[in-house]
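> forwarded from #structure-qc
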């Protein structure tokens, strides 16, 4: 089936086998060897074939799946051009709860007005703004613990950071050649405190699993009301036009029990200061 897919695409594009081998930068004999073991091609080889053959998103995803690998997350710009995403946007716009749709690498694809109302005021960051990448926000934005965990460092670590690191670790094991994941790992390792937490991820997974988010209540500072609330996060996968699923997280806010509201976050003043306009490096 792998060879058949490659041959069908090659013929549809009008390429000869010699032309494909040249586009791959290998000899015709090497290309024949690739085809002889097509079902066991490595991710790097599949990526080169996808580019050489100019594969559509559907064929690209199918080639990865047929070779026993997870398809890489498509570029956000590619997703935004699909009619399906316009329908998905209409759906989440109708929700009163903050909702975000993101790729397998946590790049944000679309958000609804409620999400932008809650997270849009976070001061700008080159790579880690919550409207750009949800995991990078948790890992790298200096203000993440002020919202997630409502300024309670322990709550942030236990209910947001460690689950996110564990899920990231598990995802990287599944897709070790994904450059976007490798870039996140490199940045984690450049930060000593974060690196130490990341090294605890295997033991955290052994105890809790690799789930990033469950529906349990966790502390959250809601800037719209200026106080601590309980956040319940509901996640789901959306199998769309491409084989790579999108993911959606929706935040359900509830008033906390009195004892939870009296935790360490008397530092509501942190948000009283507002978010600075200047970018964060």
């Amino acid at each position: 089936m792998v060879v058949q897919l490659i041959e069908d695409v090659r013929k549809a594009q009008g390429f000869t086998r010699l032309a494909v081998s040249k586009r791959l930068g290998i000899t015709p004999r090497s290309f024949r060897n690739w085809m002889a073991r097509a079902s066991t091609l490595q991710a790097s080889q599949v990526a080169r074939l996808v580019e050489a053959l100019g594969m559509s998103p559907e064929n690209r995803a199918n080639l990865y799946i047929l070779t026993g690998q997870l398809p890489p997350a498509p570029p956000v710009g590619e997703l935004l051009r699909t009619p399906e995403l316009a329908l998905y946007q209409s759906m989440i716009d109708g929700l009163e709860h903050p909702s975000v749709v993101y790729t397998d690498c946590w790049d944000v694809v679309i958000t609804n007005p409620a999400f932008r109302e809650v997270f849009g005021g976070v001061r700008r960051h080159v790579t880690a703004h919550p409207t750009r990448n949800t995991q990078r926000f948790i890992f790298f934005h200096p203000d993440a613990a002020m919202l997630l965990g409502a300024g309670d460092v322990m709550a942030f670590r236990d209910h947001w950071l460690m689950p996110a690191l564990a899920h990231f670790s598990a995802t990287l094991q599944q897709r070790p050649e994904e450059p976007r994941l490798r870039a996140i790992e490199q940045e984690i390792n450049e930060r000593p405190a974060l690196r130490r937490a990341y090294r605890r991820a295997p033991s955290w997974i052994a105890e809790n699993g690799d789930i990033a988010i469950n529906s349990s209540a966790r502390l959250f500072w809601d800037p719209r009301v200026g106080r601590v609330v309980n956040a319940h996060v509901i996640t789901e996968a959306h199998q769309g036009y491409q084989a790579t699923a999108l993911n959606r997280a929706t935040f359900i806010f509830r008033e906390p029990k009195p004892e939870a509201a009296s935790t360490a976050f008397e530092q509501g003043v942190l948000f009283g200061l507002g978010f600075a306009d200047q970018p964060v490096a």
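QC bot note: Confidence is low (pLDDT under 50) at residues 260-281. Residues 153-174 form the longest helix (22 residues).
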